[in-house]
Design brief:
The complex is a heterodimer of chains A (423) and B (162). With 423 residues, chain A is α/β, with parallel strands linked by helices. Helices cover 29% and strands 17% of the residues of chain A. Chain A has 13 helices and 18 strands. Chain A starts with 5 loop residues before the first helix and ends in an 11-residue tail after the last helix. Chain B has a seven-stranded mixed sheet with strand order 4-3-2-1-5-6-7, covered by helices on one side. The longest helix of chain B has 10 residues, at 90-99. The two termini of chain B are 20 Å apart. Classes of the chains: A alpha/beta (423), B alpha/beta (162).
Chain lengths: 423, 162
């Protein structure tokens, strides 16, 4: 009697139980507790209410100021000061200051801090990203973060799961973003509410690590508790580069694991997909996209600010120019990605094309700064949410898309796919 | 808190954390400051009209989106005594319990409650009463584990008391 999903096996192993089942409430040991500049100050305030001083393990906490960093205003600077002083006071190993920081969900895997089999909580909803490396990883709020930092433990309701059997090979301009937007369009923004999204199948070998990070990242946009991939050769190669010498345990779902639902996704049939305002589930393909004029393009974020994404955008923008009147904002997600983009000549391609390139920040994704929209403006964005007012004015509009579509749209000034440029 | 009673503010599906408290205000962690902008992008009059004890009723997937605890905090500090919805996004649900904002899931009640109705919720039994129409509904009572957190007035006290 096991019949556990991959997610359930990781939860069982961290709670000292042979067996867990969906709906069971457990207390589990945490491998990593994460916070950013928005959520950590609230958690630090809560932490003061505990009967004990300090944190459970200075090596198992990651603090990544990234949302309004470099600071956009005085209040943001005060919040970051609070996080910085807390990190220094508690000698937190993995505090990332401006200069070392990146967008948290791109940075931590790159730093080798998120490993297969880990149980990770983060006070940021896109913490589910690390499932791409076979970790159980989920977003929580600041109070849970405080409790996690103090005790090293967290409570969980064991989730049931939806299985996505990935088959086939994607065509040239179809990427992880199209896969996850297609799935969200299919099951809806609450289609996986409280559940694990487990991605399996022979088609996974055709998805790069960056594709997988993008897919796991947006599990929350279907309401999912976590998204998770098996640990295959592609993942192991990534870990050799980014976490050399680190030990980890690989978990696999039982062959007879039970799932609430199962879907087959044929990568070969997927097309470039765009989510229209104001929900990620409002997906369209170019079969029914008419002339939608835009004002801005954003390429970046924890969803699509990685090197594959920048290479893809550069391959579209190479020897082309951003349309007159369009602002194209490109944000490498980490310093390492930024440097790599420079060494590969991508930054020159972007700047020659009339785009701007920013230091890593979440900035415009949540309407913070670095690309806030005015009333009535439209943006094609590689970010993850297109809610009302997300990037600025209440009556502005966000079209979520892949880096390929975003870059093509920057060139034409309307929502476009690369084939419209003869690519 | 054993019960709540108040005037209803009514919303639809997928009320997300960006409309509950827009990110442009997330440079503050002060509940009272956040409350001034609560629901601003979906109902700009909310903060001016809401009174202590009032109740938010919504359809499915309330609180979807970000993990910002500022969202339930803004609602709580605006004086709202309970949120009733057909379903809640999971991080919002967790955050609400952890900070002591009473929330209750009920499939039937939202379809039978209108803006401006007076509604009463008994947290011990999960029974929701629309005093304006006289109809009652059975909401989902908390599992005992979560009830203990709520009885302790939040997760931190619960852990401290253990």
């Amino acid at each position: 009697m096991s019949k556990m999903t991959m997610s359930q096996k990781i939860l069982a192993a961290h709670s000292g139980l042979e067996q867990v089942k969906a709906g069971q409430l457990i207390e589990a040991d945490l491998d990593l507790v994460l916070g950013n500049d928005i959520t950590s100050p609230v958690a630090i305030g809560e932490l003061k209410k505990f009967n004990k001083d300090g944190v459970f393990d200075k090596d198992k906490i990651a603090l990544v100021p990234d949302h309004f960093v470099p600071n956009k205003d005085i209040k943001s600077a005060e919040n970051c000061k609070c996080v910085r002083e807390f990190a220094i006071r508690n000698n937190i190993t993995n505090y990332f200051e401006v200069g070392q920081m990146g967008i948290e969900h791109a940075l931590l895997p790159e730093q080798g801090l998120t490993l297969p089999g880990n149980l990770i909580i983060g006070a940021d909803s896109h913490t589910c990203t690390y499932g791409a490396l076979g970790a159980f990883s989920t977003g929580i709020g600041s109070t849970d973060m405080a409790a996690g930092m103090a005790t090293g433990k967290g409570w969980f309701k064991v989730p049931s799961a939806i299985k996505f059997n990935i088959v086939g090979k994607p065509s040239k301009w179809v990427s992880g973003k199209d896969v996850i937007l297609h799935i969200i369009g299919m099951i809806g923004v609450d289609g996986a509410l409280y559940k694990s999204m487990e991605f399996v199948g022979e088609g996974i070998k055709n998805l790069s690590m960056d594709d997988r990070f993008t897919i796991a990242n947006m599990a929350i946009e279907a309401g999912g508790k976590n998204g998770i991939f098996p640990v295959d050769e592609v993942a192991i190669e990534y870990l050799k580069e980014h976490a050399p010498g680190k030990k980890y345990e690989i978990f696999e779902a039982d062959p007879d694991a039970e799932y609430d639902e199962e879907y087959t996704i044929d990568l070969g049939t997927l097309k470039s997909t765009v989510s229209f305002p104001h929900l990620p589930e409002n997906t369209h393909t170019f079969d029914d996209i008419k002339d939608i004029k835009i004002d801005q393009v954003v390429i970046g974020s924890c969803t699509n600010g990685r090197i594959d994404d920048l290479r893809c955008a550069a391959s579209v923008l190479k020897d082309r120019h951003v349309a007159s009147g369009i602002r194209c904002i490109i944000i490498p997600a980490t310093q390492k990605i930024y440097l790599q983009a420079m060494e590969e000549g991508l930054l020159k391609t972007f700047i020659d094309a009339g785009a701007i390139v920013s230091t890593p920040t979440c900035g415009p994704c949540l309407g913070g700064y670095m690309g806030v929209l005015a009333s009535g403006e439209r943006c094609v964005s590689t970010t993850n949410r297109n809610f009302v007012g997300r990037m600025g004015a209440i009556d502005s509009e966000i079209y979520l898309a892949s880096p390929a579509v975003a870059a093509a749209s920057a060139v034409t000034g309307k929502v476009s796919q690369p084939s419209e440029l003869g690519l | 808190m054993k019960s709540a009673r108040g005037l209803v503010f009514k919303y639809g599906d997928n009320v997300d954390t960006d409309v509950i408290i827009p990110a442009r205000y997330l440079n503050s962690t002060d509940g009272k400051e956040l409350a001034k902008h609560c629901m601003e992008d979906i109902d700009k009059d909310f903060a001016g009209k809401v009174n202590d004890g009032d109740i938010i009723v919504a359809d499915k997937n309330f609180g979807c989106g970000s993990s910002r605890e500022h969202a339930p905090l803004a609602i709580k500090c605006a004086g709202v005594s309970c949120v009733i919805a057909k379903s809640f996004a999971r991080i919002f649900y967790r955050n609400s319990i952890n900070i002591g904002l009473p929330i209750i899931e009920c499939e039937d009640a939202p379809d039978n409650i209108s803006a401006g109705d007076i509604v009463n919720i008994d947290f011990d039994t999960g029974v929701i009463t629309n005093e304006t129409t006289g109809k009652t509904f059975q909401g989902q009572a908390f599992p005992p584990f979560m009830q203990k957190i709520i009885d302790s007035e939040g997760l931190i006290n619960y852990i401290n008391n253990k």
